[in-house]
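Exercise 7. Given the encoded structure of a 426-residue chain, write a plausible sequence.
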């Protein structure tokens, strides 16, 4: 379910049209326009994404935001805020809701071009969002990456997911979330325009003087299929005392020292180099590779206290290697597994039938819930990390966090639908 908190009928039509273009079915959307319905959905249901109109003057939006922030279930949701650009500016909303669970902010006039893409990105990375709720206690050695296409309009969703994850894990303070998100967005945009697309400092200056935006310049370069195929990779490595964020493009690189010297001499309010300045103000250190196609931010972990539920503290972390047998077909089911990392192959009667990755979030849950013997053998296809949850741990978890039962039930239902095909939805 995608819950839309909004009472503006004209805006409702724009939202529905934008999401339909990206394959969102009408029955997936739940429009909420009265306080009673909003409260019911927020308290008793589990939408995967919430879209909220911050500029809605009919609804008490601040009360809704407070309700979402207090409900720990919504730490696992993708919350998208839209607002009226002709009213308060984006900076006003960013400042007001800087510690909220909102992943990204979107001006109303960008709904048609951006909202569907943002929802698609959140859905594709749902496991990462959900994992940050469960895995707050599994910090040592946590690492991951995202690949970002040459699309400027997609960047805010990715940076929102990354910065929100770091806040939920206690790596950065909530008050620093927006600054980190903006810094990452600027650096990733730089990697796209200067790195992947080869737009020079002079090209950009000339384009801006001619009234063209960075989006326009990137779209022009993307007409070359070779350039359009390039990606920007964002990696994070969470250690005991520091977190390293790296942004890598597939371009030819550039003269790092020449750029830094140019930025040092220019107006600090200039659009050029804003990402580097913001990153330098937040990170302990910012390093460029010699080639210039990689920038790394070194952040000191804050160990910030926050209200994120530990969730899996009752579980047992397990490190696996290639070839390890996780479960065997026909054996008794005494646990389920939360997938932190790795790739796993599923065999039935000795025949390979499926592959399981962290995007599945759990494995072994059906036999566990139904108290049945295992129907398949699952073998690790490489190194990975799991959290083993036995019956005692599971009961402990759901007593404290009963909403996980609803989430697990939805996962099982979705898998049954996928395996049964379209006819199962009828």
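Solution.
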């Amino acid at each position: 379910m995608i819950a839309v908190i909004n009472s503006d009928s004209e805006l409702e039509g724009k939202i529905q049209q934008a999401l339909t273009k990206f394959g969102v079915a009408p029955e997936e959307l739940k429009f909420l326009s009265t306080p009673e319905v909003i409260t019911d959905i927020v308290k008793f249901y589990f939408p995967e994404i919430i879209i909220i109109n911050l500029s809605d003057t009919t609804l008490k939006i601040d009360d809704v935001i407070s309700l979402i922030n207090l409900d720990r279930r919504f730490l696992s949701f993708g919350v998208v805020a839209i607002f009226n650009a002709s009213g308060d500016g984006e900076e006003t909303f960013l400042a007001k809701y800087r510690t909220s669970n909102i992943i990204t902010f979107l001006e109303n006039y960008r709904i048609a071009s951006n909202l569907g893409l943002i929802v698609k990105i959140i859905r594709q990375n749902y496991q990462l969002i959900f994992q940050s709720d469960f895995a707050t206690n599994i910090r040592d050695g946590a690492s991951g990456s995202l690949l970002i296409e040459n699309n400027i309009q997609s960047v805010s969703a990715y940076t929102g997911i990354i910065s929100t994850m770091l806040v939920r894990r206690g790596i950065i303070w909530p008050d620093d979330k927006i600054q980190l998100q903006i810094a990452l967005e600027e650096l990733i945009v730089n990697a796209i325009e200067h790195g992947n697309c080869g737009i020079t400092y002079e090209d950009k200056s000339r384009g801006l003087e001619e009234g063209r935006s960075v989006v326009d310049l990137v779209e022009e370069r993307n007409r070359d299929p070779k350039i359009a195929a390039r990606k920007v990779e964002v990696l994070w490595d969470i250690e005991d005392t520091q977190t390293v964020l790296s942004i890598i493009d597939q371009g030819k690189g550039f003269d790092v020292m020449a750029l830094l010297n140019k930025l040092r001499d220019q107006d600090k309010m200039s659009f050029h180099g804003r990402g580097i300045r913001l990153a330098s103000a937040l990170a302990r250190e910012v390093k460029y590779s010699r080639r210039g196609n990689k920038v790394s931010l070194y952040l000191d972990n804050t160990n910030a206290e926050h209200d994120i539920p530990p969730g899996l503290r009752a579980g047992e972390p397990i490190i696996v290697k290639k070839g390890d047998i996780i479960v065997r077909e026909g054996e008794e089911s005494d646990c389920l597994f939360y997938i932190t990392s790795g790739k796993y192959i599923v065999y039935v009667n000795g025949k390979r039938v499926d592959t399981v990755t962290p995007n599945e979030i759990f494995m072994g849950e059906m036999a566990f819930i139904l108290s049945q013997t295992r129907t398949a053998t699952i073998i690790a296809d490489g190194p990975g990390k799991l959290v083993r949850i036995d019956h005692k741990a599971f009961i402990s978890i759901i007593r404290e966090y009963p909403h996980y039962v609803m989430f697990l039930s939805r996962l099982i239902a979705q898998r049954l639908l996928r395996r049964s095909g379209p006819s199962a939805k009828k």
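Remark. The longest helix spans residues 177-196. Students should compare their own answers with the one above.
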